[in-house]
Each structure stands twice: as structure tokens, then as C-alpha cells.
DNA sequence: CAGGCGCGGATTGTATAAAGTTTCGCCTGT
DNA sequence: ACAGGCGAAACTTTATACAATCCGCGCCTG
């Protein structure tokens, strides 16, 4: 029952249609093809995937629970627009969880896993060389997910999936300069540390990697002028 | 938009009917009135809450995402039955997150919050004195949630809600002896440390509290004999 | 000419009905 | 007497129809 109880909701089932919808929309968001604030009409998506609104609705609700879609009552579903406060929380959570994850990954080290990681690094390098920004963004997130899968800790994996998806939106919204080439080298260093079973180095490199990503963000505090109005209105 | 964007899915909206269903079932599970493995028929629940199966379905899907309900395809929804491995993961995650949460809670210390915490402690003591095991279990979890709310970290709060709900099932399944009076004193000590703004003491007490809870569990590794069969069958 | 009011179109929320799947009971054959 | 298979009932899944809500546009009024 341990292995069979996994296909709960966000399992990689992919056989049923609602998963196809969810993963399709997720991929579009992670690849920055769907921008924050975009309206996700039920009929619209339903027609694309040849599905009824019932299925689209469940997929959107799952995405809402993951935090990458906002559902406003009687208004519809929209791609989430994380606030700077959200961004800080997401990265703080990642700084807490991911060093622990790499620690567990070291416990699971094996030729098979090292192979998977290095194959992934090759994919990342290739996409970057190709100048394929969308693939680069997606693969960069996938790297972190892969390490989490390696750790074998399914709860951390679930949490991290959520954090990665949100991070993708955050980076899209708040990144200062276009420096897409930053992460790949870090990833290689992390893999090297894992392969050498050097826990402390792996943790430290993961932490500094996350710090560098966050340092590239410009998290303007009051969020321009609109937030001012909302603040006054809220009080 | 920062404050208004909160009512996403698991918000304390409670005004719409699906939230009422979800919170009703959640309370029943947290109070150990619904036992693991119990079938949650859609018609059954729908009739109780006077709602159509459509609404029940969305509520159950949300609970499935929180990990306290398993939905098996074409079979229905059941109260989750966490495995010993799940239990270890849940408590490891709690040991990682909750010390950080109390740390943040210290930052938010204020007379109002201290009041809320102490009022909660009183409620816990009263329920325990009254011998109301169900209320005790629920309030014990609520304490941890309250601290998370105090921390102001909405992501940690969301993660912790999930972990607390699963913990309730785990304790029900794997607790060795009936020692319901264990937690209250610990909670009081944590509140005292928070009030004194003693970060290290608060973190340490939370950690030892969690360790004691887990130490009272009997996480039998192969889970009796049924798992043996499943293992053979899986291979 | 500006501002408010009301109606129409569109979209979501909810309920109900049809379709598919599983399970359990019963019956038959050996 | 027991194993195997057929069939019906119950349930979930999916689709569709209906009701409620909101947004935008035009018209009317001051």
C-alpha cells in the first residue's frame, strides 16, 4: 500500500485527462508562455484539450491549491501574480527545505541517480546553448525537482513542487536583468558535491545558489502606487 | 491586492458551502471521529450537508490534496491511512519547519497574540480536565496552527496545516499508550519562551515537544503481514 | 457634456442526467 | 460442495442543462 498510495492527486499519473490539462497549463506557466494575470477561461481551455468544463474545473482547482492560479469567485481563474511578500516567503521556505533535501539526496547516491543528474545537466546546457529561454527556465526548475525526487522524501517533494512553480512566476515578475545563464554552473557544482557525498558542500552550494537567485530579484516593497490605494482602502 | 489575494482555496472563507463541507469533514478526521480507511461516499456526505455531489466532490479533492483523504479511481474517497514511512516523513518535516515558525512568532510578539495563545492554553486545559478526548486532540493541533498564524508566514502556515492533519491520523494509528495529557505542559512552556522573546528556548522546546510526540509512536516497519503480501505482489 | 442607472451578453456556479466501471451476489457446472 | 462466471446494483465519472452573478455598453438625466 505504500507504493500504491502515491497516486493521490498530483501524482505523475498522466493517463487521465485532468492530469493532461493540469500538466499542460503548468508547463505553459513554468515556461513563461502564460503571463501572470492571464485569464484562464474554462470554455477556452476545455476546447483546447477537447474536454468538458467539469474536467477543466478540477484541473484549475488543483492549480489553485498549488498557488500558481488564483480563482476569484464568479470571475474565473487567473495566472497568479505573487506579491513581493510572497516572493520573500517562497525563497525563505526554499532556503530552509532545499539544503535538507540535498542532504537526503546524498544518502541516495548511486550510479543510476548520478547518471540521471548528469544527463539533466547536459540537457540544460544544450537548451542554453540553443538559446531556448523557455526550455532553460523549465529545465532549471526541473533540476531542483529531480534532486527532491532523489531524496526520496515525498512530502518535501510535494512542497518543493509548489515552491518551484511559484518561483517561476516570481522570477518572471521581479528579475532585474536578463541573466539566464546563471544557474547552470551552480547546478553542476551541486551535482559534483552530491557525487562526492560531501554533505556540507552540497548544502552550502544549494544555499548560495538560492541566495544568488533571490539577489537578482528586485522586490519593490510598496509595489508602485496601486498598493497604496489598497492599503488606505483596507484601513 | 496583497491582502485580497489570500482567499484562494483553503482560505477561511467559510461562507460558501464547499468550505463548510471541507471543514466539517476535516474536523471529524482531526477529532478522530472518522477512522482511517472509512469510505466517504459522495451521496452520503451530500445528504448530510444538503449539498449536491458536485460540491462534495470539490471538497474531497481539496482534502485529497492535503493528504488526509485518498481518492482511488472509480472507487471513491477514503480517509487516508498513512504508512509508517509517511509518519517518519511528516515528523521530520515538522522538526524542520516548526522551530523556524516559532522563531518568526517571536518577531510578532504582542499583547494581543500572547492573549490569544494563553486563551488557547486555557481551552486546552479545560478540555483535558473535562476528559473530552476529541476536543483535546483537535485543540492540540490548533495550538501549532495558531503559532504558525502568529508567524505571519502564509506558506509555512499552509504546509503546517497539511502536516498537522496528517499527524492527527498518524497519532491515531500508531500511538503506543493513551497518554493524552502529554502535550499541554509543553505548549505552555513554548508560550512562555515566546513571551520572553527567547528564541533559542522556544526553538528547543518546540523541537523536544515534537520529538516526544514521535517517541510515543510505534512505527512498526513492515506493518504486520499485509504489507508483506503487497511487497511481494509489487515485485 | 459628465455621471449614474439599467439592460444585455458572457461567464461561472450548481444541479441533474447519462455513461462507464467496479463489486457483490447468485447461479450453474463439475 | 466448491470453483468459475454471468448479471444486476451501486457507485463514481463525465457531460450537459439550468440558474446566478458579474462586466460592459448604451441611454437617460442633471
Please give a structural write-up:
The structure is a homodimer of 235-residue chains. Chain A has 235 residues and is mainly alpha-helical. Chain A folds into 2 domains: 63 residues, Arc Repressor Mutant, subunit A, CATH 1.10.10.10; 132 residues, Four Helix Bundle (Hemerythrin (Met), subunit A) (Up-down Bundle). Chain A is built from 10 helices and 3 strands, in the order αβααββααααααα. In chain A, a hairpin with a 3-residue loop joins strand 2 and strand 3. The longest helix of chain A is centred in the middle third of the chain and has 24 residues. The N and C termini of chain A lie far apart (52 Å). The N terminus of chain A is likely disordered. At the A-B interface, helix 3, helix 4, helix 7 and helix 10 of A face helix 3, helix 4, helix 7 and helix 10 of B. Chain A binds a DNA duplex (30 and 30 nucleotides) through helix 3.
Question: What key attributes describe this structure?
Answer:
disordered N terminus, DNA-binding, 3 strands, Four Helix Bundle (Hemerythrin (Met), subunit A)
Amino acid at each position: 500500500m505504500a507504493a500504491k498510495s502515491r497516486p493521490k492527486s498530483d501524482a505523475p499519473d498522466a493517463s487521465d485527462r485532468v492530469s493532461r490539462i493540469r500538466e499542460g497549463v503548468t508547463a505553459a506557466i513554468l515556461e513563461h508562455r502564460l503571463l501572470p494575470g492571464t485569464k484562464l477561461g474554462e470554455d477556452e481551455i476545455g476546447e483546447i484539450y477537447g474536454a468538458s468544463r467539469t474536467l477543466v474545473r478540477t484541473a484549475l482547482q488543483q492549480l489553485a491549491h498549488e498557488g500558481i492560479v488564483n480563482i476569484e469567485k464568479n470571475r474565473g481563474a487567473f495566472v497568479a501574480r505573487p506579491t513581493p511578500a510572497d516572493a520573500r516567503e517562497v525563497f525563505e521556505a526554499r532556503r530552509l527545505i532545499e539544503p535538507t533535501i540535498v542532504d537526503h539526496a546524498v544518502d541516495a547516491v548511486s550510479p543510476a541517480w548520478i547518471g540521471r543528474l548528469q544527463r539533466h545537466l547536459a540537457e540544460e546546457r544544450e537548451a542554453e546553448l540553443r538559446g531556448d529561454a523557455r526550455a532553460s527556465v523549465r529545465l532549471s526548475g526541473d533540476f531542483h525537482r529531480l534532486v527532491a525526487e532523489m531524496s526520496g522524501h515525498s512530502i518535501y517533494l510535494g512542497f518543493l513542487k509548489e515552491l518551484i512553480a511559484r518561483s517561476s512566476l516570481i522570477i518572471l515578475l521581479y528579475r532585474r536583468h536578463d541573466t539566464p545563464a546563471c544557474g547552470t554552473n551552480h547546478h553542476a557544482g551541486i551535482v559534483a558535491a552530491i557525487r562526492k557525498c560531501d554533505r556540507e558542500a552540497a548544502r552550502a552550494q544549494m544555499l548560495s545558489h538560492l541566495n544568488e537567485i533571490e539577489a537578482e530579484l528586485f522586490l519593490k516593497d510598496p509595489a508602485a502606487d496601486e498598493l497604496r490605494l489598497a492599503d488606505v482602502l483596507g484601513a
